[in-house]
Design a protein that fits this description.
The protein has 591 residues and is of the alpha+beta class. It folds into three domains: 13-110, Nucleic acid-binding proteins (OB fold (Dihydrolipoamide Acetyltransferase, E2P)); 143-279 and 429-555, Bira Bifunctional Protein, Domain 2 (BirA Bifunctional Protein, domain 2, 2-Layer Sandwich); 298-419, Gyrase A, domain 2 (2-Layer Sandwich), CATH 3.30.1360.30. 29% of the residues lie in helices and 23% in strands. It is built from 16 helices and 22 strands. The chain has an eight-stranded mixed beta sheet, with helices on both faces. Strands 1-2-3-5-4 form a five-stranded mixed beta barrel. The protein has a five-stranded antiparallel beta sheet with strand order 12-13-16-14-15. Helix 7 packs across helix 11. The longest helix has 23 residues, at 141-163. The radius of gyration is 30 Å and the shape is globular.
């Protein structure tokens, strides 16, 4: 914490050291803990910088009387002298553990009510209670550390992007609803009764407009709002490092992100990231790991066995292999019990499989319920391709190629969580590139976007828009960190006719296109440059860097899993007068 002396403070508590011995200091902060040691009062004084031990002796009668009434989290100021702690009483676990402050004057600036929970790191309190008293929860060292790291990362990103010629530009918060994959939060307009603003799910259209406007390089730490079901890595509002660039290809965008992330890791974690990050083609990634965001710190790679079972007597494998599908397998270097295999089979069924075929490798041969249907050559070739040794277990999936991989991908993720193998390295960053442009929405019987409706198809795939839209590869790319989708972006459609074509494939009529996307479509007709960008989840990055399981631990004022804020009691009913001004009438809730 930088030294910024004020009327109440000459030093930050945690900044004091042996070199300050003999110096008179003014400190102010909170009473972290107080101890009565038979005629001496000790308490730890805490501020944002850390703790220092304070000693109050009976010779300072007024200060001694005040110290007798101190409670936890009282706000105090002291005037005292820094002294070396006696030998044998030093605390190596504390940054200021070699010194203490002998008090000359002590003043209570504000007392505190009894706390609803302890602020020590080992405390236990429900999330509801922690968020209701967030002003206390944030005083804890862990939360102070998380907020400080958030600040540092934000500043590193800002400096790095500034050095690369980006302009930080704010885009509107009150805007128009556009379909981007989640429900919008709507804001009624008093001046236009019956009309609504939408809070942005992302600044997507506006950042593309900035490229058309000649800005060429834009960024912001953007607030994004999505009305969706919540989980550990989702909040109704979150922050993303949002950027867009003109006259670029995929590698240019990747390079910018790699450089600022390398700087973040170097300055905050002391880690040198190897760049450029590996790039995996979407189809290859799915085939090898059964996921578009695999954690590459672990092996467990899916192996192709279709040719091995092309003429298999085992009907499930033989029909998949000869009917255009696939037979794929995963080797687990663990002796899985029958009950564990049964649980994995249930997981496979929940992913669409009819069951789970498996084979255990033993010194005397193989063991499996399907062994009687397999030829010895098939078993031998399977164990050879997977390099399976006695004690290993092989899990199979057969059927349409992608479905087989997704089943094994789910098993892979479950096995990593269950077996907790040692990762090959602490950090793994890689790109997954060229996602499908479109996917079929079976309920609505139409094509929809895989990521967002503004992604450009690969030039070599343009011809498929008419003949085979479901197999058009796009310029969509995701960045994955330790199995978490950290960032998502694409090269955009900068030609209006291509963008209109894609929207038409998704079922938007000309009138609907104009109503929902008219702003962008009109702009693309006025000399829009080739452009692309990305949005990186700042909260997700910080949660991983801080070792937290939930992004709520790196956000100052988060919502609960139900989207509520116990601190401010939002959302809440509003005054009927406000509703009348907005011309909104609420339905009577069902009894």
């Amino acid at each position: 914490m930088k030294e910024l002396p004020t009327a109440l403070r000459s030093h930050a508590a945690g900044s004091l050291s042996v070199s300050d011995a003999g110096r008179q200091v003014r400190l102010a902060g909170w009473v972290h803990s107080r101890r009565d040691h038979g005629g001496l009062y000790f308490f730890d004084l805490r501020d944002r910088s850390g703790l220092v031990q304070v000693v109050v002796r009976p010779q300072e009668a007024e200060a001694f009387a005040t110290a007798a009434g101190l409670g936890s989290e009282y706000v105090v100021s002291i005037l005292g002298r820094v002294e070396l702690r006696p030998e044998g009483l030093k605390n190596p676990k504390l940054a200021t553990g070699e010194i203490e402050v002998q008090v000359e004057r002590l003043q209570v600036l504000n007392p505190s009510k009894p706390l609803p929970f302890e602020l020590d790191e080992g405390f236990s309190a429900s999330e509801e209670t922690r968020l209701r008293y967030r002003f206390l929860d944030l005083r804890r060292a862990r939360m102070q550390r998380n907020l400080a790291l958030r600040h540092r990362v934000s500043q590193i990103v800002r400096r790095r992007l500034d050095e690369e010629g980006f302009l930080e530009i704010e885009t509107p918060i009150l805007t128009k609803a556009t379909p981007e994959g989640a429900r919008d939060f709507l804001v009624p307009s008093r001046l236009s009764p019956g009309s609504f603003y939408a809070l942005p799910q992302s600044p997507q259209i506006f950042k593309q407009i900035l490229m058309v406007s000649g800005v060429e390089r834009y960024f912001q730490l953007a607030r994004a709002f999505r009305d969706e079901d919540l989980r550990a890595d989702r909040q109704p509002e979150h922050t993303q490092v949002d950027l867009e660039m003109s006259f670029v290809e995929e590698g240019d965008v990747h390079g910018v992100v790699e450089r600022f992330l390398a700087e973040v890791f170097r300055q905050t974690m002391g880690v040198t990231l190897e760049t450029p990050f590996p790039r995996l083609e979407y189809e290859d990634c799915l085939a090898r790991y059964g996921s578009d965001k695999p954690d590459l710190r672990y092996g467990l790679e899916i192996v192709e066995l279709t040719s091995v079972f092309a003429k298999s007597r085992f009907k499930v494998f033989g029909e998949a292999a000869s009917g255009g599908g696939a037979v794929r397998a995963l080797k687990v270097s663990a002796a899985l019990s029958r009950s564990e295999l049964d649980r994995l089979a249930e997981l496979a069924k929940s992913c669409g499989a009819k069951g789970l075929a498996w084979l255990r490798v033993k010194e005397a041969g193989a063991e499996s319920p399907i062994l009687k249907f397999l030829d010895a050559a098939e078993v031998a070739e399977t164990t050879r391709r997977l390099d399976a040794k006695p004690g290993d277990c092989i899990l199979f999936a057969a059927g349409p190629a992608q479905e087989a991989s997704l089943v094994l991908g789910a098993l892979r993720k479950e096995l990593i969580a269950k077996l907790k193998p040692a990762p090959s390295r602490p950090w793994s960053l890689h790109w997954v590139v060229h996602f499908p442009l479109l996917e079929w929405e079976s309920e609505e019987k139409r094509w929809t976007f895989t990521h967002n409706p503004f992604t450009a198809p690969l030039d070599s795939e343009l011809g498929k828009l008419d003949s085979d839209p479901g197999h058009v590869a796009s310029h969509q790319y995701d960045l994955v960190l330790n199995g978490v989708e950290l960032a998502s972006g694409s090269i955009r459609n900068h030609r209006a006719q291509v963008q209109r074509k894609i929207l038409s494939l998704m079922g938007f009529s000309a009138e609907q296109q104009e109503r929902q996307f008219g702003l962008l479509l009109r702009a693309l007709e006025y000399g829009a440059p080739p452009h692309g960008g990305i949005a990186l989840g700042l909260d997700r990055l910080l949660a991983i860097l801080c070792g937290e399981d939930s992004i709520r631990e790196v956000i100052a004022f988060p919502k609960t899993q139900k989207g509520a804020d116990p601190l401010s009691e939002a959302p809440s009913p509003v005054d009927p007068k406000q509703l009348r001004e907005l011309r909104i009438k609420l339905e009577t809730p069902p009894a």
